[in-house]
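@channel anyone free to eyeball this complex?
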Amino acid sequence: AQSVTQPDIHITVSEGASLELRCNYSYGATPYLFWYVQSPGQGLQLLLKYFSGDTLVQGIKGFEAEFKRSQSSFNLRKPSVHWSDAAEYFCAVGAGTGGGNKLTFGTGTQLKVEL
Amino acid sequence: DAMVIQNPRYQVTQFGKPVTLSCSQTLNHNVMYWYQQKSSQAPKLLFHYYDKDFNNEADTPDNFQSRRPNTSFCFLDIRSPGLGDTAMYLCATSRAGGVSNEQFFGPGTRLTVL
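replying in thread with the prediction:
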């Protein structure tokens, strides 16, 4: 069965600093990987996804992620964090099921941005 | 704007009193999902509908049921809520056809069982 580990429960960065959120996955085949963001009181919003091809994936809001098969990782990065990036970030691995897509999420990383 | 709407946003119920959560979508997606997210935990898929086909996750308690009367609406019924069912319940939708299709999430219903 697939699983996702996000080792950092909380991260605090200063506004303007760079950010890297870690994600490790376990999946038997080629993984379908996603990063979602959840602001307080809101649903999950897709930042980016990886299926195949270029291992560096660009997403919305200036985020990118790099897929490293050898390390089973899919870390999320942003060169310069804005105060509005404070939120919870979830990494997920997807698998097709019953015509849909079962997402298995990590436990999330809570990002705090200091002004 | 096309979207996923959940009602109510907050629900308080008593132990053992049935409760229904509602999800509607204007995206015309074939697939609708229900996730449970307990405090400080990952969202966990309970079940999903592909059109009218119901797909239950193996570890979803029997206490949780779902109905999808039409493409736009999907309901989550908790027949006899326990204290452990206190959680955020997220509805999501996607096109059919597999893993590459993005899931669009509603804002969630925060359920408290007293």
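from a first look: Chain B touches chain A through 31 residues (CB under 8 Å).
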